[in-house]
Specification:
Number of helices: 8
Structural class: alpha/beta
Strand order of the largest sheet: 2-1-3-4-5
Mean pLDDT: 88
Largest sheet: 5 strands, parallel
Low-confidence stretches: none
Distance between the termini: 30 Å
Radius of gyration: 19 Å
Strand content: 15-25%
C-alpha cells in the first residue's frame, strides 16, 4: 500500500533526485530544505516516514529527530537518518536519538528503498503488502481482497482499510480519534462518531463468516481486534 515520505535535504539536486526515485517507487513525497520548513509540512499532513539528512542549515537532523520523538503526534513517524559519517558513535547517537535506521553515504538507490521498506514494515505494517491472516480471516492488501474459508467478503474501501489496520495491530486499543488519524488521515474533517458507523458496517460484513466478534468495543477507550474472539 502507498506510504507518504517527507524528504529533508538542503541540496536541491539531491532532494529532487530522491523525490523522483521515491515517487517512481509508488510513494507520496513532499520535500523540505530545512527543519522549519519540514515542521510546517509535518503539521499540515503527518508523513509515514521522514528521510532526513544529518547536516542541515540551522537545526541539524539529529535534534529534529529528537523533537519528532518527543511529540505525541509525531512520535510514531518512521525516521531514516542519512549521514556522511560511518563512525560508530554517530550511528549510536542517531539510533538512541530515535532514528529507526542510519544510512551512510554513498549508498545505492536499491539499498535506500530496501531500508525504507524494512523500516515502514516494522513501524507501519498497515502500509505493507504482506497478506495478513488470523482464525481463517485473510486480508490481501495488494489484491484488495478479504476472504474467509475461501469465500470472498465484499468491503468498501474504508472498511477494508479499517480491517487491515486492526489486523496489523492485533490486541491494541485505538480510540475513535486515533482511528480517524490512522485511517482517514490527520487532515480529514470527519466526526468521531463516523468511526462507529464504519465499525458497524465492518461487523455486518463479517457476520456470515463469524468474524464479527473480532472487532471488540472496549468501553470508554475505543476498539481493538481480538484473535480467537468467540
Amino acid at each position: 500500500m502507498v506510504g507518504s515520505i517527507l524528504v529533508v535535504e538542503q541540496e536541491t539536486a539531491t532532494r529532487s533526485l530522491l523525490a523522483s526515485n521515491l515517487q517512481n517507487s509508488g510513494y507520496k513525497v513532499r520535500c523540505a530544505g530545512d527543519v522549519p520548513q519540514a515542521e510546517t509540512l509535518v503539521r499540515e499532513a503527518r508523513p509515514d516516514l521522514v528521510l532526513l539528512d544529518w547536516v542541515l542549515p540551522g537545526i541539524p537532523g539529529l535534534p529534529f529527530t529528537r523533537r519528532l520523538r518527543s511529540d505525541q503526534r509525531t512520535r510514531g513517524i518512521s525516521i531514516v537518518l542519512i549521514s556522511d559519517s560511518g563512525e560508530e558513535h554517530d550511528k549510536v547517537a542517531a539510533l538512541e536519538g530515535g532514528a529507526d535506521d542510519y544510512l551512510t553515504k554513498p549508498y545505492s538507490g536499491r539499498e535506500l528503498l530496501a531500508r525504507i521498506k524494512a523500516v515502514m514494515r516494522r513501524r507501519t505494517p498497515q502500509l505493507a503488502d504482506d497478506i495478513v491472516e488470523f482464525d481463517g480471516l485473510q486480508v490481501d492488501p495488494a489484491a484488495h481482497r478479504v476472504t474467509a474459508g475461501g469465500t470472498e467478503i465484499e468491503l468498501w474501501t474504508t472498511e477494508f482499510r479499517m480491517l487491515h489496520f486492526f489486523m496489523t495491530h492485533v490486541g491494541r486499543i485505538f480510540s475513535r480519534a486515533a482511528l480517524l488519524d490512522e485511517i482517514w488521515g490527520h487532515d480529514a474533517f470527519v466526526e468521531e462518531r463516523t468511526v462507529d458507523v464504519h465499525i458497524r458496517r465492518l461487523r455486518q460484513a463479517l457476520v456470515p463468516s463469524g468474524h464479527d466478534k473480532t472487532i471488540e468495543t472496549v468501553r470508554g477507550l475505543g476498539y481493538r481486534y481480538r484473535v480467537n474472539a468467540g
